[in-house]
Design brief:
CATH topology of the largest domain: Apoptosis, Tumor Necrosis Factor Receptor Associated Protein 2, Chain A
Protein name: BTB domain-containing protein
InterPro entries: BPM1-6, BTB/POZ_dom, MATH/TRAF_dom, SKP1/BTB/POZ_sf
CATH class of the largest domain: Mainly Beta
CATH superfamily of the largest domain: Apoptosis, Tumor Necrosis Factor Receptor Associated Protein 2, Chain A
Number of helices: 17
Organism: Panagrellus redivivus (Microworm)
Oligomer: single chain
Helix content: 10-25%
Strand content: 25-35%
Pfam family, one: BTB
CATH architecture of the largest domain: Sandwich
Structural class: alpha+beta
Number of strands: 33
Largest sheet: 5 strands, antiparallel
């Protein structure tokens, strides 16, 4: 088959004066023997706002044409090669996509292309450069004689005519044959083992490079260029990459989906992150062209621990194997990445199912989905107390660290709930990150859905209702005649962000080179970690780099250890009121803003009349203006209960004064006392019994 080689070069400085995302086009070049033109398009600032790469594209005026393209940037190590297939006229292919900061403006970009007519498998050997014009072999179908080799004399049977450009001028008798056959010159289609029971298999690889700027927006999608492969029918595939998840509930994950243009096809992929041990294998059968499958999902924390977030950029490689099923109904080898619980699908209920699914085998489109549990009338009639039915464990969509399992007691979970249906949901996590679940239970009887609804919200563990619905009320609704009742459950999981969103990877590799001294105990620490989370510690180590021991007088050594573990987010820590108070004092003293905000939110959520005075002392001792304002608002709402408490007079006079000032700033206080009355308060000291106006 004829091969034609051509080269195009342009100076990158020519694109320097072009406005943002404007296209620079090289002059058209004619491919000898193919009757087609080709040219390059350069986008120095990317094609759109989502695409900021230095991108070079190739266009061909006529198709089908395949080309093996090699490019390099002079004076740099930027180079690469790819196979492009142009199915139709003016089709486009991606030659290179580079980081614009690594492309010097003084260099030249060179692209060498080897063209072949038709869409065929092209293999390029390094260093194998054929001449620009070769002999052209035009074959006609023949069943008896094989075509002669290139350059051999033509057969008298007429099965093949071989002519070089020079011989075609010296042999006029052969010209009509060449001209006649050139009009009908069509390459035979590629052969595939259609009669074989094994599917046609093609393996291809693509990679995506992510940098810091890609992790700014949630639900921002980056699509890789389409890659064309030859199956039984030519098809394309690409990756949709979400660096911060495809919705706000999974903003702490890197999600990748593989997309295909033609179906049906079975795909087995292996994702790998360069220079790390992170690998993910997934399988999926595509039956729709718009389906999302072969999911890659890893949390940002895993990338941090792998040491790639501290780099300017890192790459994720996807090696995909495509297989055409021998039959659309043939079973796929291995688990499929399909939606596990589609809406309004009833689960087989009655038997215990403990089947496990790995995160990579699940693709769920929405964080909100419905699970229906049908219970037959016979089960309700014969149900006994404590008899439990369990569903299998389901994994929340997008949050691979969280799962839940439903428990149903048709006859009640205990004696007090006899003749009632009890329902519970148990939530589990394999991550140390907290999460909040908002669930809703409902009933569906005789086509009437959501007769009863009970929303609830909690952090961990177990939630449900011991008396969800009475048998008497269910029978009144016609359950006996209908043959059963369906209990529905929907849930939304909201994973909380890691406490420290980003830590440089070199922190985990540094030794414990410092210590916090509390009394006679030393708590080993990493000075880089302390310098990263606290400007006070950072300035301290800058001023005295050789003195890495810091003495703390007002803190407990065990609490310091717990606080440091909590900051590093390496293991789950149960936060209590005393621990949160120490967190707030520690964070306020050393200006650890993230820890201070967490402790403030925790203490404000626990604010009550019983602990008001303790939290007020902490708010002014830390100090914390946010907690002070919260105490003032709380005082305004529960004035009579707090003032009449015996501990009220034990508060410091300055604290009391500030508390009432905070309370007066509340709009409700201003409405109640807007008549111009001046309020005076006296604090009675038990030891002196003197009245002191405040």
């Amino acid at each position: 088959m004829a091969t034609f080689v051509d080269t195009a070069t342009f100076a990158i400085a020519q694109t320097a004066d072009i406005a943002t995302r404007e296209c620079f086009t090289t002059p058209k070049r004619i491919v000898s023997g193919l009757g087609a033109d080709w040219w390059l398009e350069c986008y120095p600032k990317g094609k759109n706002e989502k695409d900021l790469a230095f991108r070079v594209l190739m266009r061909v005026s006529e198709g089908p044409v395949s080309a093996v393209v090699e490019y390099y940037v002079e004076g740099t190590d930027l180079k690469g090669s790819s196979e492009l297939i142009f199915q139709k006229s003016k089709a486009v292919g991606v030659v290179a996509q580079l980081n614009p900061t690594k492309v010097p403006p003084t260099a030249r970009f060179t692209c060498r292309a080897r063209f072949k007519a038709g869409v065929v498998d092209v293999e390029a050997e390094p260093g194998d450069v054929p001449p620009a014009i070769e002999a052209i072999s035009i074959e006609t179908p023949s069943t008896n004689n094989p075509p002669p080799r290139l350059g051999s004399p033509s057969s008298t049977s007429g099965s093949s005519v071989v002519m070089s450009p020079v011989k075609s001028q010296l042999a006029p008798t052969a010209k009509p044959a060449v001209k006649k056959e050139s009009k009908k010159a069509v390459l035979p289609p590629p052969k595939f083992p259609s009669k074989s029971n094994q599917p046609a298999t093609v393996t291809d690889t693509a990679s995506i490079t992510l940098n810091r700027s890609n992790f700014n927006n949630t639900a921002h999608c980056i699509s890789t260029p389409k890659r064309f492969i030859n199956m039984k029918e030519p098809m394309s595939w690409w990756l949709d990459v979400y660096p911060c998840g495809n919705n706000p509930t999974v903003s702490g994950l890197v999600l990748i989906f593989l997309r295909v243009s033609n179906v049906p096809v079975d795909v087995v992929v292996k994702y790998s992150v360069d220079n790390t041990d992170i690998t993910v294998t997934s399988k999926h059968r595509y039956t729709r062209s718009d389906a999302l499958g072969c999911q890659f999902g890893q949390s940002h924390q895993q990338f941090i621990q792998a040491g790639v977030f501290g780099l300017d950029s890192f790459s994720i490689t996807c090696c995909a194997t495509f297989m055409i099923p021998s039959s659309p109904t043939a079973p796929f080898l291995g688990p499929m990445s399909t939606t596990v619980i589609p809406k309004k699908k009833k689960i087989r209920f009655g038997a215990v199912d403990y089947s496990k699914y790995t995160p990579n085998d699940l693709i769920l489109d929405s964080p909100d989905y419905l699970v229906g549990i049908p219970i037959k009338t016979e089960i309700l009639k014969n149900a006994t107390v404590g008899e439990v039915y369990k569903t299998r464990e389901y994994i929340f969509p997008g949050g691979f660290d969280h799962s839940y399992q439903l428990y149903c007691y048709p006859g009640g979970d205990q004696d007090s709930s006899s003749r009632h249906v009890s329902v519970f949901a148990e939530f589990r996590t394999i991550s140390f990150l907290p999460f909040v679940v908002t669930g809703k239970w409902g009933l569906a009887i005789n086509g009437y859905e959501k007769t009863f609804e009970y929303p609830f919200e909690f952090d961990y563990g177990w939630g449900g209702f011991t008396k969800f619905a009475s048998h008497e009320r269910l029978f009144q609704r016609g359950t006996l005649n209908d043959g059963g009742v369906t209990i529905t459950f929907s849930a939304t999981v909201t994973p909380q962000e890691p406490f420290v969103p980003f830590l440089p990877p070199n922190i985990w590799r540094t030794p414990l080179d410092g210590a916090l001294v509390v009394g006679v105990e030393r708590v080993p620490v990493q000075t880089k970690l302390l310098s990263f989370i606290s400007p006070v510690f950072k300035q301290r180590f800058i001023e005295r780099p050789y003195d890495t021991d810091i003495t703390l007088l007002e803190f407990d050594a065990n609490l310091i250890r717990i606080i440091l573990k909590f900051v590093q987010n390496k293991e789950p820590i149960e936060v209590t009121m005393p621990l949160a108070c120490h967190m707030l004092k520690f964070a306020a003293k050393f200006q650890i803003n993230a820890l201070r905000e967490y402790a403030e939110k925790f203490l404000i959520s626990k604010l009550a009349v019983e602990n008001f005075f303790a939290l007020a002392d902490v708010a002014w001792a830390a100090p914390s203006e946010t907690l002070q304002m919260a105490c003032g608002r709380f005082l305004n709402g529960y004035m009579s209960m707090i003032v009449n408490d015996s501990q009220f007079v034990k508060l410091d006079a300055e604290v009391l004064k500030d508390l009432f000032i905070m309370a007066q700033k509340h709009p409700r206080w201003q409405m109640s006392h807007s008549s111009g009355l001046k309020l005076r308060f006296w604090v009675v000291r038990p030891e002196t019994e003197e009245k002191e106006p405040k």
